[in-house]
C-alpha cells in the first residue's frame, strides 16, 4: 500500500512515521526537536531519509509529498511559521526551508489542525467540529465541512484567551489545561505539583470524593463551557472533540462539560462532546493525511461551508 | 437595470422593494406581517404582484427569482422555517409555500444572515466577519469567505446564550441588546422604561456623564466582549460588524468594545469592530442579493473556507 512520510514537530520531540491512506501508522520514530529552523530542517531531512530507506526495505511505495506539522501560529496557505514562542521563530519560510532540505514537496500544516483532520478522517469522523487539544496548553481547531478554518494562522489560540472566574479575568489554560488542572489542584490541596501524576490523578481523586479535586475540575469545566458556549451559539451546535492528554479523562470530562454547555446554550440543540479517538500520534497522522491528500491518494469531496465534505480513498464508492 | 423583488419578513412588518445589482433599493413598501404561514405567503404574493406592476410601469427588467428573508431558525439549504417564536411556525416548508403562492422561484434565507450578506457586498465589504444585529434581541451571522455559515439554521442564536456577570449567569440580550440597555438603565436610574427614547438616549446620557447610563453601557460592552472573545480566539481575529438599531451608537459602542476585546484576546491580532453601513433595510437588500445571485446577475467567486470569496457583477473585471 502507498504510504506518506509524516513528521510532527513538537516543542521538545519530533514524532515521525509512515502513514497509509487507511490511517495506519508504521515505522514510528522520535527525535529531540532542534531549536533553530535550519537545524530543524536538517533533522527532518534525516528522518525523511531514514523512513524512505525503511520503506524501500519493507517494499512500501511512498508518495512524493512529505507531510509536516508544526506548532505556533502557522499560515498554511503561504507556508510560513508566523510565530512560535517555544521554537523561537517569527515569519520563518518553513515550507520552503523544509522542501529545500528534504528535496521533495512538503504538505505543511499546523499541528493542532493536523490532529483535527486526522481525527475527522480516522477518529470520531466529525466533518464539522471544534477540536480541542488539551495538554500543557489549549489549542483549538475548527473543522468546517471537512476542511480546517485557518484565518491566516490565527485561528485556534484559545488557551491564552481570558475568561471570567468569580468576576476576575483569568487565562483559560491556567485553569483548564492538563497542566493547569494539576497546578490548581496543587494550590488547593497543598500537595506539591511535582508529586501529582498528571491531570489523570486529579480526575481519579475527584472520583474517590476528594473535595479539592472536585472543585478543581468543576472550575475547569465551567471555564471551558464559558469559553465554548458563545462560540457554539454563534456557529450553531457542532461536535466538540477533546484531544490531547486530557482526552483520557473520558466521561469524567465529557459528561459535566455537556451538561454545562447545555445549560448555557438554552435554545440551541445540545452539542455532542466526546473524547478524541486517536492518541498522542494524531498530529503525525494528520501530517500524513495532508501529504496523502496533496499526492491525490485521498480524495476530498468539496462542499460549501454549510455542507458536509467527505474524504475517501480513490476508487472507493462515493 | 435588472432588479430583483425582495421581501423581508419581520416580526411585525414586512419590508419589500426592488434591489438592483449595484445595491440600490427602489419602490419600498411595508405591510403588517400576518401571523399564519399561508396568510403570510398570500401577502408576500400580493406584494410581489404590486412590485412587478411597478417595475413594468417604470420599464425595469426583473429577474425571475424573488428574494425572501425570514426570522427564527431557518434552514436555507432545505427551505424550511424550523422555528419562530414570534411567528409561531415549526418545520414549515416556507420556500415551497412561497413559491406556490408567488408562482416564481424563491431565493430563501434567514433575515440576519441576509442582512450580513448585504453588508458584505454593499456595506462594510468584509468577506469574513461576525455580524451582530442588535435590536430587540441579538442575532449573529458568521460570514466566512463570502458565504454565511448556516449549520442547518442553528448558527447565530447568540442573544439567548448565557454569559457570566458578577459570578451569575445571565441572558446576553437582557443586558446588551438595545432593549436590554433601555431596561437596565431604567432599573438603575428609576426612570420608567417607556419614558426612555431607545438605547440612543442611554448613550447620550452616558456621554453627558450620567453614572447610571455609563454603568449600563459598561456592562453591555463587557458582556458582548465576554461572548465574542473566545469565539475570536477560536476562529482567529476577524471583523466584527455591528448592525441593527444599536449600530447608530457608532464609536460610543465600537471603541470600548474594541478595547475590551483586545484586553481579552491578548496574543491574537486586534479585531476591527465597526458599525454596519446599511440601515434598517439591510435584510431586504440581502433578500434581493440572494435573488440576484440565484438568477446569475451577481457572480460569487468561490473560495475555500480559509480563502476570500468576492462578489462581482457579470462582466466586471475579476
UniProtKB/TrEMBL annotation, chains A, B:
Keywords: Kinase, Transferase. Gene3D superfamilies: 3.30.420.40. One of its GO terms (molecular function) is kinase activity. It holds the Pfam family ROK. Belongs to the ROK (NagC/XylR) family. PANTHER family: BIFUNCTIONAL UDP-N-ACETYLGLUCOSAMINE 2-EPIMERASE_N-ACETYLMANNOSAMINE KINASE, ROK (REPRESSOR, ORF, KINASE) FAMILY. This is Glucokinase.
Amino acid at each position: 500500500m502507498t504510504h506518506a512520510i509524516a513528521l510532527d514537530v513538537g516543542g521538545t520531540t519530533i514524532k515521525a512515521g509512515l502513514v497509509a491512506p487507511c490511517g495506519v501508522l508504521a515505522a514510528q520514530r522520535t527525535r529531540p526537536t532542534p531549536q533553530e529552523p535550519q537545524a530543524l530542517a536538517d533533522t527532518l531531512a534525516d528522518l525523511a531519509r531514514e523512513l524512505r530507506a525503511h520503506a524501500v526495505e519493507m517494499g512500501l511505495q511512498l508518495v512524493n509529498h512529505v507531510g509536516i506539522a508544526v506548532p505556533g501560529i502557522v499560515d498554511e496557505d503561504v507556508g510560513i511559521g508566523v510565530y512560535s514562542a517555544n521554537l523561537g521563530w517569527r515569519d520563518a519560510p518553513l515550507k520552503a526551508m523544509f522542501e529545500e532540505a528534504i528535496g521533495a514537496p512538503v504538505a505543511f500544516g499546523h499541528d493542532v489542525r493536523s490532529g483535527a483532520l486526522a481525527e475527522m478522517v480516522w477518529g470520531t469522523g466529525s466533518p464539522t467540529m471544534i477540536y480541542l487539544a488539551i495538554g500543557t496548553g489549549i489549542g483549538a481547531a475548527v473543522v468546517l465541512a471537512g476542511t480546517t478554518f485557518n484565518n491566516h494562522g490565527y485561528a485556534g489560540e484559545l488557551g491564552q484567551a481570558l475568561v471570567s472566574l468569580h468576576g476576575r479575568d483569568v487565562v483559560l489554560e491556567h485553569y483548564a489545561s492538563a497542566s493547569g488542572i494539576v497546578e490548581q489542584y496543587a494550590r488547593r490541596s497543598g500537595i506539591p505539583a511535582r508529586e501529582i501524576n498528571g491531570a489523570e490523578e486529579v480526575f481519579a481523586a475527584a472520583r474517590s470524593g476528594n473535595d479539592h479535586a472536585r472543585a478543581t475540575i468543576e472550575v475547569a469545566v465551567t471555564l471551558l463551557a464559558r469559553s465554548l458556549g458563545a462560540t457554539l451559539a454563534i456557529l450553531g451546535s457542532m461536535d466538540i472533540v477533546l484531544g490531547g492528554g486530557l482526552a483520557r479523562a473520558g466521561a469524567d470530562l465529557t459528561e459535566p462539560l455537556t451538561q454545562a454547555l447545555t445549560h448555557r446554550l438554552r435554545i440551541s440543540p445540545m452539542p455532542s462532546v466526546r473524547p478524541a479517538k486517536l492518541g498522542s500520534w494524531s498530529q503525525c497522522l494528520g501530517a500524513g493525511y495532508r501529504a496523502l491528500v496533496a499526492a491525490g491518494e485521498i480524495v476530498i469531496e468539496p462542499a460549501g461551508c454549510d455542507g458536509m465534505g467527505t474524504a475517501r480513498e480513490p476508487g472507493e464508492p462515493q
